[in-house]
Amino acid sequence: MFGINEVLSNKKDLTKEEKFKILNSKRIDPKIIEYLINRLSDLYIEVLGDYQGTILELMSSGKLEGWCWQTTESAIVFFNDDDYIERGNLKFEEKTKKYYHSWICFNFNGVEYVLDPCLNFLCKKDDYHKIFDIEVKGTVTAKMVREELIRQIQTPKEKEISEFSKNFENFWNNFLGDEYQERKKGEVIVNGKEDVNTPLYRNGAGYKTELHDGKIKKLTVHYYLGF
I want to staple 116 with a disulfide (CB 3.0 to 4.6 A). Which of 41, 103, 196, 200 is the partner? Predict the structure, then answer.
C-alpha cells in the first residue's frame, strides 16, 4: 500500500490509478461526512435529462465528472464565508497533460479539507496538493460566489444578457423546443465568465432558488451542455 511519504519521495513513478488509490485509502472521520451531509442537504442537481439527485449521491456514483465548474460553484454557497474554491491544474502522470479542474476547500475543526465532487475525493487539502502536484490558477470564496449568484437571480435578465446566454437560448430552443421551455420555468440561467478568479466561471446552469431574508435556503441546479 502506498502512503503519502512514498508519494513525496517517488511520485514521478506513480500512475493515475495509484494516486487515486492513495487518496481513497486515507480514512476520513465520519463526523466530516455528517457535516457535509448537513451542509449540502438542500442542494439538488439535475444533469442534463440523464441523472438527478443530491450532490453526494451523484458524487459517489461518478455522475458529476466533467461538471466541475458548475458543481463546485453550486455547492460552495452552503459553506462558511471564508471556505473557497480553487481552480487550477492537477498532474495525474508525468506523461499526460495537466488536468484543468476545480475543487472545494473547507475548514473542519481547524484542519483544511478538499471536497472534489467530480473526481469523488474527500481528503485533507495537504494530501490532495501533494498527490497531484497542484498548480492553483485562481481562487474564489464562498461569500463571493453566494453574493454573485443571488445578484444574478435577482437581476432581471433583460438588463444582463451575455452572448453566451443568447447562444444558449437559441441552441436549446432549437434542440428541445417546448420541452426546454417547460423545463426552465422558474429557472435563472446564470452568466459565467472567462475569468478564473470570477465567482461564476464558465457556468451556464439553470438555478431554481428558495431565498429567505436574502439567504439561499435551497437550490435545484440543472446542468446543460456547453458548446
Answer: 103
